[in-house]
């Protein structure tokens, strides 16, 4: 189903970029839903993976020897769901757990050859989808968007840290 048909079928009233009354979180949520609904079937067909599993592969690729605790923080993901996704990736031979050299209780995560192959396939698909989905942005606008989103995330992280330390 095309993005246009999905929007028509869902009868979503997407705010235009000039609609300053819509909350940023609403716009981000709509973008997330549309992108996930369009991307998920492609990833599942190509690799048999869900987007959240692919995110795990990407982080394990980018941070070899990362622990599940570190992944939990980076993904802001429930521990139970994280364990479920990691177990599935391990059962399919995409990741392996290696005991930490200093502390055998800690398991470090790495991609296997199958995981590397799946990561590469999904990376190609993902970069292609981003180019298609956001084709109206110039390279400079794309970089600026990422910069602004990084600032927003840092601001939110600072707020959260302060809110939790205040009680």
TrEMBL record:
Residues 21-154 form the HTH marR-type domain. Keywords: DNA-binding, Transcription, Transcription regulation. This is HTH marR-type domain-containing protein. It comes from Enhydrobacter aerosaccus.
